[in-house]
User: Fold these one by one.
Assistant:
Number 1:
Amino acid sequence: MSEPTDDPIRGAVRQLRRLPGIGEKTATRLVYWMLRAPDGTVPAIAEALSRLSSEVRTCGTCGNLTAQDPCGLCADGRRDPSMICVVEHPQDVLAFERSGEFRGRYHVLHGAISPLDGVGPADLNLRTLLDRLRDGTVTEVIVATDPDIEGDATALYLARLLGDVGVKVTRLAHGISVGTEIEYADAVSLSRALQNRQLMR
Amino acid sequence: MSEPTDDPIRGAVRQLRRLPGIGEKTATRLVYWMLRAPDGTVPAIAEALSRLSSEVRTCGTCGNLTAQDPCGLCADGRRDPSMICVVEHPQDVLAFERSGEFRGRYHVLHGAISPLDGVGPADLNLRTLLDRLRDGTVTEVIVATDPDIEGDATALYLARLLGDVGVKVTRLAHGISVGTEIEYADAVSLSRALQNRQLMR
């Protein structure tokens, strides 16, 4: 084709292909969908993406991604200030909020300790966590890192670090997930479920 | 959560969910990927989408979507002006260009006749096709509509309409696709392949 190299259709396909899980075919399908979409649809999408990079920053308190600092969760006086749930990623906060079970505060590490990837404790958002524990308001830190090697290493590191501060450190229970039949449970979850078995009466 | 309703993260998730095949989970994954992406990535994507709605228009000659009118394919003097390949959608032009087999011109109908959806001949980009046939340069029109009910109806309509103009009208061969083993070929393709069988010697 003798289209110029700055052809907007091909440019949009090329840009969408940068997204994870989106290849040439999906990007092309999305672009042609956009070209047929009602007026205003695509500008609204483009505007929403622009705002992501211009308005979203890190909350200086908990490290969550937010448009305001402190974020809505840190600024919400109705939340229990005595408990902090420590997670690896901002998405994990969303998952907890969906469950509606936790009414305390959060702290986002932005990663987990992974020597293989060159990520050590200094690369995590830990300094502000220690600052938050200084005045004694927080009595329990719930470690909600992922149940994998990096998450386990991070949990152990946090337990040692925060034990020195004198705060109670707990970790999420791991076991077979609700809805999983034992027959189909993976071996690691099943062995965790056995280790963490609860006394019934 | 007490985030304001115009929270840019949730706004971006909501906008991306409008795209076909993208649900809440995928949209959230894409947004958090964008929030971690290197500087300039997301503005470049947003800019490419903005250009789609501001710069892309319909070629006044062939009806293809393009940033320039006439489009690069219509303006390319090296392409054979005696053949026009009629397709339903702009994406079909891309598919032909990928194959590299066709060196003539295109005409995009932007749809196919479908009484059930209320799409008749008047809704297709046909008037400019007749204009293009007027000076006698075009000697063959290849109908490349999809091999489905709507595409077949459109092909039959075109054959009758263009037969009156005195131009040769052909249609793409349908049969089993290259790479398909006969064992797994669908019944309709196999029956088309039988009907369209070629004499070998």
Number 2:
Amino acid sequence: MGARAPRLIAEENGVDLQVTLAGPGDRVARIYRELRAAVLDGRLEPGDRVPATRDLARQLGVARGTVTAAYDRLSAEGFLEARTGSGTYVATVSLYDATGDAMGRSTDASGDGRRARPGAVHPLPLWEATAPRPSRRDRPLHDLSLGQPEPALFPLEVWRRLVGAQLRRSRLEESAYSGRGSPRLQREIARFLGLARGVVASGDDVIVTAGAQQAVDLMARVVLAPRAVVAVEDPGYFAVHRLLETHRVALRGVPVDDEGLVVEAIPPETRLVYVTPSHQFPTGVAMSLGRRVALLRWAVEHDALILEDDYDSEFRFGEQPVEPLQSLDRVGRVAYVGTFSKSLLPALRVGYVVPPRSLAAAVREAKRVTTWEGDLTTQGALAEFLAEGHHAAHVRRATRVYRERRDRVLAGLAGCADLLDVVPSVAGLHVCARFRDESVDDREAAARAAARGVRVEALSDHYRRLPPRPGLAIGFGGIGADAVPDAMRRLEAALRGAPGSGTD
Amino acid sequence: MGARAPRLIAEENGVDLQVTLAGPGDRVARIYRELRAAVLDGRLEPGDRVPATRDLARQLGVARGTVTAAYDRLSAEGFLEARTGSGTYVATVSLYDATGDAMGRSTDASGDGRRARPGAVHPLPLWEATAPRPSRRDRPLHDLSLGQPEPALFPLEVWRRLVGAQLRRSRLEESAYSGRGSPRLQREIARFLGLARGVVASGDDVIVTAGAQQAVDLMARVVLAPRAVVAVEDPGYFAVHRLLETHRVALRGVPVDDEGLVVEAIPPETRLVYVTPSHQFPTGVAMSLGRRVALLRWAVEHDALILEDDYDSEFRFGEQPVEPLQSLDRVGRVAYVGTFSKSLLPALRVGYVVPPRSLAAAVREAKRVTTWEGDLTTQGALAEFLAEGHHAAHVRRATRVYRERRDRVLAGLAGCADLLDVVPSVAGLHVCARFRDESVDDREAAARAAARGVRVEALSDHYRRLPPRPGLAIGFGGIGADAVPDAMRRLEAALRGAPGSGTD
């Protein structure tokens, strides 16, 4: 509030009215708002007389017409009423009851009535259970946390060109309300999935989403009634678990062993099984063929749906590509979810789902009613990015880069082979290692690593309920190959409790 | 499939095996997939012997190493097993049971097992009730349907520059996982809302969404338990009604009169009231101050939340701006929803919600778990667009353009004053007129207009259950001012049943 702002203390009819002309907005609007606030706050009560326009204008140092315009507006909206020959009064429509006493007059001096207070509307309990997320403001020297692709690999100049080409008038005029998204992107994703992942899909089968989370959300909306039982991997991916819980379902953790999800441990009443078979999150295990077959059979026998999240297996380091569950499915029991957040850039926020055909219309409808079809500029640019071969080239190039980082992480872990067993994996942007000594506190180990400037994740942090097997998850998406050896030396030193700490 | 593709009919052990090398993918992958498909389809059964690599290579005209690589991969994945000295066999892991008999062997010759069939997983009933949406492929001569802003007004060159400036590496490297979206955009929206709409909000109060539909969706998630009663305007906005229904709530239509929603008709058990007070959809009525106060009081007395959708009132044509319900709210009972889809362009898909502070953390969490924070490039560009004043300038310019169109529509309606009463309104991109003769079939009238090349909407199409008062809703966002007179002449001719039809 400016120090030189005109200010008025009016004491007509005992009313203490302050009007200040500081702040944004024209003077008419300013006077209008000040007076209206006084009415709403109860400083002016129904039947109070307000200052004559001439008096108020003089005191504020503005033209009388300015005050008159503000009064006219307040009168038109029913806040004030002119009584012929006797002046202008606060209208007797009982604003006061609605905004003051009826809900307990505000007692906070700032006059800010929007803050939470007794009687305020509250969220449903399922939204109150939110744990605060750990702040990541403090960047460590070496960040080996999970889910971070390397932004420097993103072919920015190509992307700029493609986005620019989308920003033409003819594209922007296309209706955003078809609910269909970009058919071209759907076709390109289907082609990419068929070639790169063996997924059986046409463009009509692909529903483009705002990231994989929305894909999971849409599937949950479409098949899960409240209290439905949903099986998830334990350890598993908490962001999706949390999302599923908000659908009022009963989440059941199912153990994961060296062949992936233990199918026989799935509760029989399960309606949906959420799995990451290509590169289990967080352990990295690839689900064995036997388990895949068993899971498909289980889904048929129990009339359940499998939700396969293939979040980062574009980056493959083994000889044998492991193809998705969806490519084995001949009976429409698998919904396949993928994302460009890992293979390209999280900021794109583009994912997709290929549901069984029996669900496709419903999923498309669920997308339409919630977010229509998303950002068509990004979708159009991504379609061209795929069609022109940039995506395939990017994945090849990025795989080489990530392979080098991964090899160096594995080399570092080999130096700790007396402490840690590496979990075999063939894809993705992180590896896991389990402590040979199962009594190790992996959170404490991660904290010791952090004290030496290395951020890794404790496997225990990804367990729901099972007695966790202690270990570390080590991401290599966000660290340059040159930095890996130093990071791994520091990690080893932390694990061995060698002297010397700090991030120097 | 290429005509010259090598093709093999193998009849070993009575197995009819066809391998073709046409189609995309390298030859190893092709052989791998053909054989795998044969196993999955049951053409090869567990225990069957597959051709020797030497024989298959000869027959396909490929190097033996190619076939060996495919067999190795199939073996690694468990489809085949080599028996020393006796050849390679289909593995006895019972793929067949899982993908064939257990779910009824596919009988469709295409081998496409993903289509819906008995036993397929089905969506929940609430997703099956979807009415097919009318196709809009046939563009009429004059399109006066609702919800279409003028794309030619969009300042494309400015937007291109701002988007281009966002596409720099430092921006793309920002984590997309904070769940906070662009704080700058939140602040700019709060500033814009305060200046232009009198909405009381700081940046922390603003949650940016993928359009207004997502804003409504998030609010519904956060406050509506299954079977909660939700009051909506009747007539009203069906896209939002449909969205709310998918949250398993009980929707109740409440009549709208010349002062807006009839507050006393709201069912007492209502938990949420969805309203469009600035420019009621579709009638265009502005809610009177008395009703606004009554609605706020009602919400307090009944412990309910008001969801205010201010979808298109940036464009104001009256002397007196009508400020939102939210600006009257001193007790945290109003969630304010807005969008840039109408004021700028639907394709942007950016909206926002300003919930009461008691709900803000939950709404933010709901956004985070479903779609993280959306497209940061668009959000960043929009923040600059607002900060540099382009949005305010655009709204001023567009208001002039729309005012001219609106005046011409109203002039045309004045010529039909014996048939139609214009519903007074002060904002937005459409006007309504009711038939003086309440026995008129407005759908039939709209069909007659369509036959003359003019698309308008029948008010009856926007009613849920109440006996509709017939009328027409006429949008002017998508038609140039020069075309309006011809459109209105055609409309009048249609209404009067004058001779001459067609779109000439």
